[in-house]
Amino acid sequence: MAHATRGQVFGPRLELAFKLALLALLLGAPALFAYAVWRESAYQALGEPVEQPIPFSHKHHVGDDGIDCRYCHATVETSRHAGLPASSTCLGCHAQLYTDQAVLRPLHESARTGRPIAWRRVHSLPGFVYFDHAVHLAKGVACVECHGRVDQMPLTWRAQPLQMQWCLECHRDPAPRLRARADLFTPAAPRVAPAEAARLAALVGLEGRQRRTDCSTCHR
C-alpha cells in the first residue's frame, strides 16, 4: 500500500483540485462561448441609429442625391469587405460643398493629419464567421437584403439580425431574394417574381443546398 502511495504522481488533494478545475472548464466553456456570441450579436439593437463622428446620412447621399453604393464602398464587388471611403473620396464633393460647416471639421482634420475618421461599426459579424461581400453580389444578393433601406436612413442602423438562423433561411432558399445585376445597388428595387427568381438562380449558378448550408461554408 505504501509502495502505491509513493508511486502516485499527484497527491489526493491535488488530484481532486485538478478534477474540479477540469469540471469547471467543461461546464464553463459553453457559457463563455454563448456569452461571446451574445456580445458579438447584441452590440446594437435593430432599428437603433448609430451615432458617428460625422452624422453621415445615407438618406441624403443615396436617396436624395442618388450616389451609387460603390462610390464610397469601392471594394464591395472585388473583396470580402465593402471598404470605407478615404477622406479624399468625401472631399471629391466636400472640397467645394459645405466647406465651412462645423459638422465636417472631422473630415478636414482627417485630410490634414492623414488619420482616418473613427467611424463606428453598424454591421458586424463574430470573428468565427466568414462572409464575403463580393461572392454574395456575384450571386445576385442585393445590398438591401442585409443592410435594409439605407436610402431612408438619416443615420444608419442595423436592419437585420445577422445571426446564424437568419443567414440559413436565405442559404436554404436564396432564389426569392435574388435581383438582376442592374438592381443590386438600388435599395428601392423590389424582389422579382418567382419565375424570374428561378431564372436568376440558374443564371448565377448557385451552389447546391448542401454546400450552401454546410458548416464549413461560413465557419473556416
UniProtKB/TrEMBL annotation:
| Name this polypeptide is given | Cytochrome c3 family protein
List, alphabetically, the SUPFAM superfamilies matched: Multiheme cytochromes (SSF48695)
Q: Which UniProt keywords apply?
A: Membrane, Transmembrane, Transmembrane helix
Residue ranges annotated for the Cytochrome c7-like domain, each copy included:
129-220
Q: Which species is listed as the source?
A: Ramlibacter alkalitolerans
One Pfam family name is: Cytochrome_C7
Q: What is the lineage of its organism?
A: Bacteria, Pseudomonadati, Pseudomonadota, Betaproteobacteria, Burkholderiales
InterPro entries listed in its UniProt record: Cyt_c7-like, Multihaem_cyt_sf
Where are the bilayer-spanning segments?
20-38
